[in-house]
């Protein structure tokens, strides 16, 4: 049965920003839409494209090394005005790690301060050591703890009006000190969680889909799916982390 609904995903720079399988997030979004009769349309945006974000329902940006991040940021700055308008209009945007850092005012690459997209009031500086390892986060956007893997030298600091995605239950999060992870602003979700993020965290996938449906069709209600496998994977990871059974 099809619902006659479609959602258009803009996947930014898949060839550059695909650390730890971040592109797997797109597969999860597509599947969870298709299982509900919502037609997914994916527009891959490559470095020399000049994309239009009108008609886009979900933008996704993965993580990358500093080098790749710099290439991408130079290109993306050309789209800043359009992306800012998209976000302010309630456009859904998911960003992971390097992509998350790009959302802010700036980030530090070595000693160089690289300007960001200024979509969310945050900035990223650096610290030692790199923050590496498994992570679990309690968040209002997921019924289960969000689990995954983080690896970043950057420390992200949120401005006063920006809500974190959640509280760190295990691992480091935004800066290794605040106890918070990621950001939520309008319909933007930024996070350091790779893994990729969505396969073991179906609640986060559904949050993005529901927000996009609500914006486009005025109704974000989602038919439940059988998530037995996804939730078993989530639980095994969470339980092992919290029991101290995983060597970092
Ligand atoms: N280059 C960034 C950092 O190390 C992001 C890395 C990543 O996307 N995992 O902070």
Automatic annotation (TrEMBL):
The keyword Ligase applies. Its EC number is 6.3.5.13, 3.5.1.2. Pfam families: GATase_3 (PF07685). One of its GO terms (biological process) is cell wall organization. This is Lipid II isoglutaminyl synthase (glutamine-hydrolyzing) subunit GatD. InterPro entries: Class_I_gatase-like, CobQ_GATase1, GATase_3, Lipid_II_synth_GatD. The gene is gatD. PROSITE patterns: GATASE_COBBQ. Forms a heterodimer with MurT. It catalyses: L-glutamine + H2O = L-glutamate + NH4(+); beta-D-GlcNAc-(1->4)-Mur2Ac(oyl-L-Ala-gamma-D-Glu-L-Lys-D-Ala-D-Ala)-di-trans,octa-cis-undecaprenyl diphosphate + L-glutamine + ATP + H2O = beta-D-GlcNAc-(1->4)-Mur2Ac(oyl-L-Ala-D-isoglutaminyl-L-Lys-D-Ala-D-Ala)-di-trans,octa-cis-undecaprenyl diphosphate + L-glutamate + ADP + phosphate + H(+). The active site is at residues 97, 194. Pathway: Cell wall biogenesis; peptidoglycan biosynthesis. Keywords: Cell shape, Cell wall biogenesis/degradation, Glutamine amidotransferase, Hydrolase, Ligase, Peptidoglycan synthesis. Belongs to the CobB/CobQ family. GatD subfamily. It comes from Parafannyhessea umbonata. The lineage of its organism: Bacteria, Bacillati, Actinomycetota, Coriobacteriia, Coriobacteriales. It comes from the Bacteria.
